[in-house]
């Protein structure tokens, strides 16, 4: 019989109170540092860099900006550069060299309104292709940027004439397994999920999960599409098997009612793509494992391949706060180490144990 201690444990290593609202927190690759992004009560933006030293966070750098910063990613530059791309409330996309204060190394007025979500690919050091960044905004558009082409996006996905502009809450890049292929997934406030094929500049697939889509993430960006997780307002998440696309049924999926409130984020463990964490509006974290079915596809009556969804198992959960945990980021280097931040103006460093045993 297995005891509860055999399961992974979510341990709060330390926490630090902040004097501003923190929207996003990210580990700086190949370091013991993390960055927090947010806004002061006076309406300006802030970026702080902390270093983990002797079990606590030491502030080593702070910078204030005219506009609050909503989101950031290290995904578009190499591990040597480690430049941070950020999206702010003014619709600006900036890329920062964290070693040098002051002006960004790349800056563009990307959107007319707030950039809600940002993701990067190409700088992972493992995949192929261009250093691209995707941004999703309240103005209803999703844009892809190449840092070598400054003034205009390389792709712009926007509603057609007469179509309602929906608030884009989340974007994710994936399917970057060679130099040509790329897919962007976007989630919107009305429950729409759209998958754009950048190679063919076309809408490859769309569905609606009935509730606003808070976060979408591929289990890996740099492989042939495998799985996609989408989280929503009503505490439900959906795992789509992206290997088999049926002409009419699309991708098969399994859904799970996980939290009693909004699931703000989902993050896959970098060292194991079948384990992921969801963060909830009631200040809790849920750790999940996806189990593949015995066969991932079957043939329907028309002799067409249709995907078979697997199942999800809850490994562990923990409540950290009474406020939403709005961001979480795993360390790419140390398995089980993660940083998360919430609307209680606190950043926490967590250790998740026994991940190699599940």
What Rg is obtained from the alpha carbons, in whole angstroms?
A: 19 Å
Strand content: over 45%
Order of helices and strands: EEEEEEEEEEEEEEEEEEEEEEEEEEEEEE
Give the CA-CA distance, first to last residue. Answer: 15 Å
Share of helix among residues?
A: under 10%
Number of strands: 30
Q: Label the structural class.
A: mainly beta
Q: Please tally the helical runs, counting DSSP H or I stretches of 4 or more residues.
A: 0
Main sheet: strands, sense, barrel: 4 strands, antiparallel
Q: State the low-pLDDT regions, or none.
A: none
Calculate the mean pLDDT score and round it.
Answer: 92
Question: Looking across the biggest beta sheet, what order are the strands in?
Answer: 1-30-29-28
Query: Outline, from the CA principal axes?
Result: globular
Family: Belongs to the WD repeat rae1 family.
Pfam families: WD40
Protein name: Dynein axonemal assembly factor 10
Function: Key assembly factor specifically required for the stability of axonemal dynein heavy chains in cytoplasm.
Topology:
Layout: E1 10-17, E2 21-27, E3 33-39, E4 45-53, E5 56-65, E6 69-73, E7 84-88, E8 92-96, E9 106-109, E10 115-121, E11 132-137, E12 142-146, E13 155-157, E14 168-174, E15 183-188, E16 192-197, E17 202-208, E18 213-218, E19 227-232, E20 236-241, E21 253-257, E22 263-269, E23 272-280, E24 284-291, E25 297-299, E26 305-307, E27 311-319, E28 325-330, E29 337-342, E30 346-352
Pfam family, one: WD40
Protein name: Dynein axonemal assembly factor 10
Function: Key assembly factor specifically required for the stability of axonemal dynein heavy chains in cytoplasm.
């Amino acid at each position: 019989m297995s005891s509860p201690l055999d399961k992974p444990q979510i341990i709060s290593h330390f926490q630090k109170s902040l004097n501003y609202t923190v929207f996003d927190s990210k580990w700086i690759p190949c370091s013991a540092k993390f960055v927090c992004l947010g806004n002061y009560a006076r309406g300006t933006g802030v970026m702080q860099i902390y270093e983990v030293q002797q079990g606590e966070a030491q502030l080593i750098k702070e910078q204030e900006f005219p506009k609050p910063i909503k989101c950031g990613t290290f995904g578009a530059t190499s591990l040597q550069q480690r430049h941070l791309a950020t999206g702010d409330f003014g619709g600006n996309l900036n890329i920062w060299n964290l070693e040098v204060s002051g002006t960004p190394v790349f800056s563009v007025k990307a959107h007319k309104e707030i950039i809600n979500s940002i993701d990067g690919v190409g700088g992972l050091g493992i995949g192929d292709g261009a250093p691209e960044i995707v941004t999703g905004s309240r103005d209803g558009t999703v844009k892809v940027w190449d840092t070598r082409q400054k003034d205009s996006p390389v792709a712009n996905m926007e509603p057609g004439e007469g179509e309602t502009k929906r608030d884009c809450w989340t974007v994710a890049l994936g399917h970057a397994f060679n130099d040509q292929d790329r897919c962007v997934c976007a989630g919107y406030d009305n429950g729409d999920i759209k998958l754009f094929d950048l190679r063919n500049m076309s809408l490859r697939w769309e569905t609606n999960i009935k509730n606003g889509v808070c976060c979408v993430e591929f289990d890996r960006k740099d492989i042939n599409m495998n799985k996609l997780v989408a989280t929503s307002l009503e505490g439900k998440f959906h795992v789509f098997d992206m290997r088999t696309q049926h002409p009419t049924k699309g991708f098969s999926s399994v859904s799970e009612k996980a939290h009693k409130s909004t699931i703000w984020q989902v993050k896959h463990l970098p060292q194991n793509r079948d384990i992921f964490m969801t963060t909830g509006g009631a200040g809790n974290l849920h750790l999940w494992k996806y189990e593949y079915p015995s066969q991932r596809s079957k043939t329907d009556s028309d002799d067409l391949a249709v995907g078979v969804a697997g199942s999800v198992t809850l490994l562990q959960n923990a409540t950290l706060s009474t406020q939403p945990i709005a961001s979480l980021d795993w360390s790419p280097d140390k398995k089980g180490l993660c940083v998360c931040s919430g609307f209680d103006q606190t950043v926490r460093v967590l250790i998740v144990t026994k991940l190699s045993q599940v």
